[in-house]
Amino acid sequence: MAGEKRHFTGGNLEIDIPQRFIASLLYELRFAADSAFVRHVLSGWQLTGIIRAQSGSPFDITQGGDIENQRPDFVGSSREAAVINQGLQWLDPDAFQEVPESDGGAPFRPGTLARNAFRGPGYWNVDGTIAKNISLSRFYEGMRLQIRLEVFNLFNKRTFSGIVTEIDSNLFGQFTSARASRALQLSARFSF
To answer: pTM here?
Structure first.
């Protein structure tokens, strides 16, 4: 037994994200026109975007008691089966069991669940901007005005977060919050 590593002492770090994809794009719209007025109206438009996708973050499941961050026993058939993903309920509460405690409130032994054994849901998001660059160089050399419409969470995808991780809670395994919904921002920038 000496030197043997017990399976519940290791685990993922909170910053462990095995898959992450981030891409940005910038496209300047180009139009050909004979009229100077039409060229002025149609030129100077830009589309930009940032696309993010990643797997979920690990989280630790704990039980109440005198010892902080005490982990419970895992009694489910498998980790995959314990993630039920039904509406706001992410985890199956029946897959976890409290470690028996002494009269003093201390557990008799460590729980069998590894540290950060489960992950929250992954997510993807697209932010975008449409901008119009207007040259004001006829007034002063190098002057420019940019008007921008920025859209955060362009597709208004709802992603839940904030899982209750203490098995003593009536809300154990449920989401309590969500990432921000779509937001629009209009701005102007004057450069000289």
So the answer is: 0.72
Cβ atoms < 10 Å from Cβ of 98 = 15
Residue 118: CB atoms within 10 A of its CB come to 22
Two tokens, residue 115: 């540290």
| Dihedral, 40, 46, 47, 49 alpha carbons, nearest 10 | -160
Helices and strands (H, E) in the chain, number of each type: 2, 13
Which residues have a Cβ under 8 Å from the Cβ of 131 and sit 6 or more positions away?
Answer: 45, 46, 48, 146, 147, 148, 149
Domain ranges of the chain: 20-191
pLDDT tens column, 75-129:
988 889 999 988 899 999 999 998 888 777 677 788 888 888 899 999 999 999 9
State the DSSP H helix or E strand holding residue 49, giving kind and residue range, or none if neither.
strand 45-54
Cα–Cα dist 121/178, whole Å:
11
* CB 181, CB 160: distance < 8 Å: no
Q: For the segment 30-50, what is each residue's pLDDT rounded down to a tens digit?
A: 777 677 777 777 788 999 999
Tell me which amino acid residue 123 is.
Y
Judging by beta carbons within 10 Å of its beta carbon (0-12, 13-18, 19+), is residue 134 exposed, middle or buried?
A: middle
